[in-house]
Amino acid sequence: MPPKHSRDELTPRTGALIAAESMRKLDPVIAQVRLTRRLMADVESITRRIETRAGAR
To answer: Cα–Cα distance between 56 and 6 in angstroms, integer?
Structure first.
């Protein structure tokens, strides 16, 4: 395990590498959130369609 450094000792490149690694770790989470939003939009769309048809009867 690499030694811990204070933030003051981080070079801009090291900071950028840490940020890139953090974003890579978040990629699956972000993908899951996008999928969930798409699914919720589909559910809302289907619900509106059902309500419209029920109201037309």
So the answer is: 66
